[in-house]
Amino acid sequence: MVGAGLAGSEAAWTLARAGVPVDLVEMKPVRRSPVQRLDGFAELVCSNSLRSDDPLNAVGLLHEELRQAGSLVLSCADETRVPAGGALAVDRAAFSALVTDRLSREPLVRVERAEVEKLPEGPGLAILATGPLTSDPLAAALAALVGPGLAFYDAIAPVVTDESIDRTVAFAASRWGKGEGADYLNLPMDAAAYQAFVAALLAADKVVPHGFEEPRYFEGCLPIEVMAERGLDTLRHGPMKPVGLDDPRTGRWPHAVVQLRREDLAGTAWNLVGFQTRLTWPEQQRIFREFIPGLASAEFQRLGQVHRNTFVDAPRVLSPDQSLRARPDLFLAGQITGVEGYVESAGSGLMAARAVLDRLAGRPFRPPPATTALGALHRHVTGVAHPEGLAFQPSNVVFALFPPLDGRRRGKGERKQAYAERARKDLKEWIE
Ligand SMILES: Cc1cc2nc3c(=O)[nH]c(=O)nc-3n(C[C@H](O)[C@H](O)[C@H](O)COP(=O)(O)OP(=O)(O)OC[C@H]3O[C@@H](n4cnc5c(N)ncnc54)[C@H](O)[C@@H]3O)c2cc1C
Prior knowledge:
- By secondary structure, the chain is of the alpha+beta class.
- It has helices spanning 6-17, 58-68, 72-79, 92-105, 136-146, 191-203, 224-229, 281-291, 314-317, 342-360, 373-381, 412-431; strands spanning 22-26, 49-52, 81-82, 87-90, 109-113, 126-128, 150-156, 159-161, 171-172, 185-189, 256-262, 269-272, 300-302, 305-311, 323-324, 327-332.
- β3 and β4 (87-90) form a beta hairpin.
- Residues 2-8, 25-28, 35, 45-47, 115-116, 129-135, 138, 154-156, 307, 309, 334-336, 341-342, 345 line the site of flavin-adenine dinucleotide.
């Protein structure tokens, strides 16, 4: 097992629990990518949220499926969660420490801290789960086998310290009162403040990523300044959406809002929700302090950054069991296969481990049923759910990847309910 991120940790756990000995090789702390800070496994590099925990949402359904499958990632997330409305967010340091501890205590897992520079050459089977920031020598070795890697850009959001937030400006509330009702801090903006902020973003200095003339971003995680370029109200309909957030001082929703989500249970630091950015660091500090009410004295624990994010052309280079067509003894798992997101990567790790178990047992791979959230991810990387004629692109788990429901007309809520019920019924047998 190469890489102890979300996918590698989940896969190593699944295999060990099934009685298979695993050598787990992780490059930290010998080497680390520019976004990594912790030495532990399963590090969440940007947001500390595993997104919606509502099973009527595709990612919430994936949470439910992973819990049923005995997932290490989900159980550690549940134990280290912080209040975040309807989302499953965690204390990232406690989460990583718990995953590391559980794996380190697993008798069948032998941990080695080293950078793997070549493709593993048996004996035995190997899973590469080295993620979107796979280190250069290994990425080159993989490219030599399957052709050049595909790539897009992913950005991370800043974090501010609690004591530097002006509490006379911020109000505590979760959207529509979800969770404990007041899990987020909200920094309200009126129309004039919002327009000034957008104008400042458009004029700001940005870091130009190397290696690409026209950087391509993941649509689900666009930098704020790219959103600002798409129109004045784009941010107000995205991460700065005020809907469902009553300001207790006015009894109304503000014009726009910057939401802060707790980084840890004690609330010593807060993440600017959806504020991934590639503004230069001096510009981030200047603009956020000057134009976001309540952040005038903000102390930044981390600033936003942008990174190249590599994945393979999975439908072309992978077999349905996630092994490489060119090297059937090597499996891929996680974001490198073209799934996007922490939870999806954990799900991909689970599937790769189950594929290895099938291989070791000498039986054909049994993919999860297509109607489940895990099956939807499988359909995506095998290309089944991918629009014909379009280049393969990474995807989060969304209901659009599921096979259509029967033709009966349904409202939106009823449709989500139908997806969830069908998935639950079909997953049970696969898990067992
Ligand atoms: C800048 C950026 C921001 C992101 N923001 C978000 C977000 O907000 N929310 C979200 O859901 N997803 C986000 N992602 C995607 C996120 O990285 C993935 O969802 C998830 O971490 C992928 O899991 P993984 O297990 O495939 O890879 P990772 O979690 O990255 O794990 C890979 C592991 O392999 C190790 N490794 C790499 N190369 C080697 C080597 N040669 N030898 C040994 N070990 C190696 C790494 O150290 C790492 O521990 C972001 C990605 C990037 C790059």
